[in-house]
Design goal:
The protein has 81 residues and is α+β, with helices and mostly antiparallel strands. Helix content is 41%, strand content 15%. A hairpin with a 4-residue loop joins strand 1 and strand 2. The chain starts with 8 loop residues before the first helix and ends in a 12-residue tail after the last strand. The C terminus is likely disordered.
Length: 81
Amino acid sequence: MGIRWGIKRTVGQIYALIYVAPQPLNADEIADALEFSPSNVSTGLKELQAWQLAQLMKMGAKVQRLLEFKDKLKVVPGGRA
């Protein structure tokens, strides 16, 4: 499905994982869950941020970079609401 939208398969898999995750995930959790290299995850996350489909957030006293969806309701296939 992602290929139809012009995104790489790995980016689509990262996108799907973040979408179904009950809480924000960090890059290490994404890499472990999908068995991707850290560099593939980093590249995929940058692409999702460029498309404004995900954003970084900070949590806790120990700053941890987590990724979450900006607005799940805005993600509509074909651009129709």
